[in-house]
Amino acid sequence: MSKKTLVDVPDDVIAGHRILVRVDFNVPLDDAGQMLNDTRMRKVLPTLRYLRERGGRLILLSHLGRPGGRPDPVLSLGNLADSLGQLLDTVVSFTPRLVDESALEAVETLQEGNVLLLENTRFHPGETKNSPELSRRLADMADLFVNDAFGVAHREHASTVGVARMMRAEGRNAVAGMLMERELRFLRDHISDPERPYMVILGGAKISGKIDVIHTLLPKVDLLLIGGAMASTFLRAVGLETGKSLVEEDRVEIAETTLRAAGDKIILPVDCVVAEELARGATTRIVERTQVGVDDRIGDIGVRTREIFADALAHARTVVWNGPMGMFEIPPFSAGTLSVAHSVADVTERGGMTIVGGGDSASAVHVADVAERMTHISTGGGASLELLAGHRLPGVEALSDREEI
Ligand code: ADP
Ligand code: MG
Predict the structure, then answer these.
(1) Buried-most residue among 119, 277, 348, 375 (CB within 10 A)?
(2) Is the dihedral of CA 294, 299, 303, 307 positive or negative?
(3) C-alpha span between 168 and 173 (Å, rounded)
(4) 188 tagged catalytic
């Protein structure tokens, strides 16, 4: 069912009204609580600007980190208020509360275009429990709810799902923000009817978290290229020696059935970068996949595999990439991932569509310096995987349907 987005909301429902916006300001922090980068804040600026230009009175809700239902000064959203103010070129007020009298008072003083940041939703024990009481108090604060927090759309929390349901039940709207709309357009809509050849590259640490994705995608893709640690489990499934590589023993059997069902749609690495330790400065060798020794650990795809992947991708019109090809964080094992990043970027250059999902994959694309050359880089790791697996997102399901007034 089609959900309402910001553009479905008439301007007079925004002007002068209290707009509760769930954003994802879960920015990376260093040990002292200093923000390492503000990408997540920048991504919601279009939604915030749209609402301010139309005279909305903005109340922003976000989580930050995992405080476990208790206040933690390092994770206070107050630490982000000034940075947000600079990005928006306005004063962002902050209230150290989420829902109580002082928060309500702060809301009442908001003028058109003003922005108020509430405290970290996860300081409240009701947030992750989707508590009706917290949802009710949040709903009481506003006339319209906008969810632009794609990164937590797969979570059923009070500030994502509970509040939306509560407001709709009372005849108010809950709609998708611009970032949410864009994520859904690429990771759900475009992929449901992709231009072909359609290829998916999967990698990363584990099969277990991505087996649903593999099964959902297999019937739809023309080719599935597999690298990363998950490739080791597949190599074991075809009976090869994988030494001390990260293999999920309890997934070898499902990998075997998956390969049988896939026919020639799955391409596995033919060679690998191996070392005795996956560590900085390790001595590496590139070996055929049949030549992995009992003491070896596979840390990356080999040179021939990179070429095979590049040749396949040279024909792709749609590419989805999730999961690095190796332990790309450390130099001896980063070349495979960087090579794939460039091959994918070349697809965009030839007019194809390229979509990157997954937190580590997104950072690999930045390390490879090809972020500007991808059609879409998702801001949500878990949420993007859920969509690729064909699952619905509770945070989206909770929004108003197009047919509602
Ligand atoms: P994403 O966040 O893009 O979904 P994942 O979280 O699934 O990706 O996996 C990323 C992690 O997988 C990285 O930390 C990377 O070091 C690790 N990884 C990839 N290949 C290997 C490998 N061969 N051995 C060990 N770790 C690997
Ligand atoms: Mg990850």
Answers:
(1) 119
(2) positive
(3) 6
(4) no
* Tokens 């994918």, located at residue: 344
Pocket test of ligand 1: the residue of 214, 268, 360 to mutate, having most ligand atoms within 8 Å of its CB, is 360
- Give the integer Cα–Cα distance in Å for 389 and 366: 25
What average pLDDT score do residues 188-210 get?
A: 93
DSSP strands (E only) in 149-253: 173-176, 198-202, 223-226
Is 182 noted as a catalytic residue in this protein?
no
Helix 335-349 with 359-367: angle, nearest 10 deg: 80
Structure tokens at 248: 């999920």
Task: Check: CB of residue 291 under 8 Å from CB of residue 330.
Answer: no
Let me know how long the chain is.
405
DSSP strand E in 141-238: where?
A: 144-147, 173-176, 198-202, 223-226
Mapped onto helix, strand or coil, the DSSP state of residue 115 is strand
Ligand nearest to the CA of 329: 1
The number of the ligand 1 atom at minimal distance from the alpha carbon of 326 is 20
Closest ligand 1 atom to Cα of 364: 3
Could you tell me which residues are beta bridge partners of residue 84? none
Q: What is the pLDDT of residues 279-316, one digit of tens each?
A: 999 999 999 999 999 999 999 999 999 999 999 999 99
Tokens 């982000």 belong to: 80
Task: Encode pLDDT of 239-272 as tens digits.
Answer: 999 999 999 999 999 999 999 999 999 999 999 9
Please state, in angstroms and rounded to a whole number, the distance separating the CA atoms of residues 19 and 174: 10
Which is it for strands 271-275 and 376-377: parallel, antiparallel or unpaired? unpaired
Alpha-carbon gap, residue 345 to 339, rounded angstroms: 10
Predicted model pTM: 0.93
Determine phi and psi for 174, rounding to 5 degrees: -130, 115
**How far is the C-alpha of 100 from the C-alpha of 126, rounded, in Å?**
14
Secondary-structure percent of the chain, ordered helix, strand, coil, rounded to 5: 45, 15, 40
Measured from the Cα of 245, ligand 1's closest atom is 24
Integer Cα distance of 48 and 110 in angstroms: 15
For 229, residues 6+ apart whose C-beta sits below 8 A from its C-beta are 203, 204, 205, 206, 245, 246, 298
> Helices H, strands E: what count in the chain?
17, 15
Query: Which has the closest alpha carbon to 142: 69, 27, 57, 227?
Result: 57
Spatial distance between the Cα atoms of 124 and 137, rounded to a whole number of angstroms: 12
> What is the distance in A from the centroid of ligand 2 to the CA of 19?
33
359 is catalytic: yes
Centre of ligand 1 to C-alpha 203, Å, is: 7
